[in-house]
Amino acid sequence: MPTSPKKDLTLDPENWDQMRQLGHQMIDDLFDYWQSIRDQKIWKPIPAEVKEFLDQPIPEQGQDPAKVYEEFKQNIFAFNKGNVHPRFFAWIQGTGTPMGVLADLLASGMNPNTTIGEHSAMYVDRQVVNWCKELMNFPSEASGILVSGGSMANITALTVARNSFGEEQIRQRGLKAASAQLVLYCSVETHSCIQKAAEIIGLGTDSVRKIGVNSNYEMKVEELEQQIQQDIQEGLLPFAVVGTSGTVNTGAIDPMEDLLAVSRKYGLWFHVDGAYGALAKLDAKYAERLKAIEEADSLAFDLHKWLYVPYEVGCTLIRDAKKHRDAFAITPNYLLQESRGLSGGLDSINNYGFELSRGFKALKIWMSLKEHGRAKYAQMIAQNNRQAEYLGMLVAQTPELELTAPVSMSITCFRMVKQGLSEGQLRDLNREILLRLQEEGIASPSSTILNGKYTLRVANVNQRTRMEDMDLLVREVVRIGNSV
Ligand SMILES: *Cc1c(COP(=O)(O)O)cnc(C)c1O
Q: How far is CA 286 from CA 11, 109, 137, 279, 282, in A?
């Protein structure tokens, strides 16, 4: 007989009161951080000793929780990225909200693996997916799944598109079942995750046709149709068109209605990458142009961008729920469902995507939508768009600045210009402006290159931004630019 040890080990705190107090302290510190964020520098360079501290071997022995938290505060908390700050405009990154964060804490505390079984999180997840359909005006019979983000949402949709192509049984037999190469269409402005997805699902880079764009960076439909016809003539198999609602560079919107019509005409799957901008549907100004999204076969969009929910969460919606399930459903012996008890309840979410274990990411969306309501989110999204337009107007009124793309949704691209500077010198000037804005802790735009022009890029999915931040940004760009 093995002897029982004197004391069973556990990872629960040795001193519950101390841990509880520490937890309260963490919440207090977070609230102080959020409440004072406007007055703090947006970004600080990470000192060498901090980088060194974060490059150590695995600790063999534990230490006091309070000490661990202290180390976090000094070395991690203090050097945050800054996307919680009102003047963070780099890439396309959301701010999060206090309620969203607290919901994540609760979700993590409950810690249900939200894939299978009869428990509340499954119903919250289903509720949130249904709300996502309502937000996007998708039919209630459509299906959907919450995933980690836009990239995952896009590959999930494209996998369904691929597996449900024709009568080829690609899921069983692989791509060799198709009589010829499948071809996917998107524009040169499409996000890189679409190409990666095409590579991963076996199409390969060569079968991604990147169609040209007009001066507004929107896909040229005539060119799309010509390319489809040419591919058909060459015996290839066009299978999907990807339209983008809000390109990552300039917020451009592909002509959704035309893409839908071309897709229907040639019997192709119409997918919309709305990771950033599908939610612009909630702004009356864009509702009409984005109407055709509702007819798409699939839609990917992020909630950690324009629903301001903390990272990570995105959503895939699929019009034909059967095709969705047929693409992923599989029931190994260890995942049998029953009609009663813990393994009863709703269809396993694993039947709708690749990931098995899933956190309770639905809760932060559920609590946020409950807290603010759809109408408030519509106002917030419209507010970001108006702020971007206001910035565009300020740029147009400022002789030292020029717009480098039309303002679309909440993205404003511009640069400083000076008489007599070459394209290379303008690039150096604007890069210096960008770096100093960040290094001085003032604001964080990012950059891109549009038609060969290095450009400052302000993408605003920030729930803390005010109009006055746009005035400040223009003032600071001109000040720094004049001092370079
Ligand atoms: C952000 C973005 C993606 C990728 O989404 P992640 O959530 O970062 O994975 C894809 N497409 C577009 C248009 C995006 O803006």
A: 51, 39, 14, 10, 8
Instruction: Using most ligand atoms within 8 A of CB, pick from 148, 156, 191, 460 the residue to mutate for ligand 1.
Output: 191
pLDDT tens sequence across 392-427: 999 999 999 999 999 999 999 999 999 999 999 999
The response to whether residue 189 sits with its C-beta less than 6 Å from ligand 1 reads no
> Does any ligand 1 atom lie closer than 6 A to the CB of residue 186?
no
What's the token pair of residue 368?
Answer: 């946020």
Closest CA to 307 of 470, 140, 103, 93: 93
Cα 282 to averaged position of ligand 1 atoms, centre (Å):
19
SS3 460: coil
Spacing, Cα 183 to ligand 1 middle (Å):
22
pLDDT tens by residue, 173-218: 999 999 999 999 999 999 999 999 999 999 999 999 999 999 999 9
Q: What are the angstrom distances between the C-alpha of 250 and each of 85, 246, 380?
A: 22, 7, 20
pLDDT score at 5: 62
150 pocket-lining for ligand 1 (C-beta < 6 Å): yes
Give me the residues paired with residue 454 across strands.
Answer: 449
Nearest alpha-carbon partner for 381 in 124, 36, 154, 135 = 135
- For residue 350, give both structure tokens: 């694993």
H/E run at residue 473: helix 467-483
Q: How many angstroms does the Cα of residue 432 sit away from the middle of ligand 1?
A: 27
Describe the strand order of the beta sheet including 453-459 as a list of residue ranges: 401-403, 411-416, 453-459, 446-450
Q: Which residue has the tokens 């511009």?
A: 414
Q: Is 248 in the pocket of ligand 1 (CB under 6 A)?
A: yes
Buried b / exposed e over 84-105, threshold 16 CB at 10 Å, is: bbbbbbbbbbbbbbebbbbbbb
Among 82, 72, 84, 70, residue whose Cα is nearest residue 44: 82
User: Which among 211, 217, 213, 281 has a CA at the least distance from the CA of 242?
Assistant: 211
User: Does 143 contact ligand 1 (Cβ within 6 A)?
Assistant: no
- Ligand 1 proximity of 94 Cβ (cutoff 6 Å): no
pTM for the complete prediction?
Answer: 0.96
Q: Flag residues of the chain having pLDDT under 50.
A: none
Kindly list the structural domains of the chain, giving each domain's residue range(s) and its CATH number in brackets, ordered by start: 112-331+338-359 (3.40.640.10)
CB atoms within 10 A of CB 348: 20
Index of the ligand 1 atom closest to the CA of residue 276 = 15
CB 264 within 8 A of CB 228: no
> What pLDDT score does 4 carry?
67
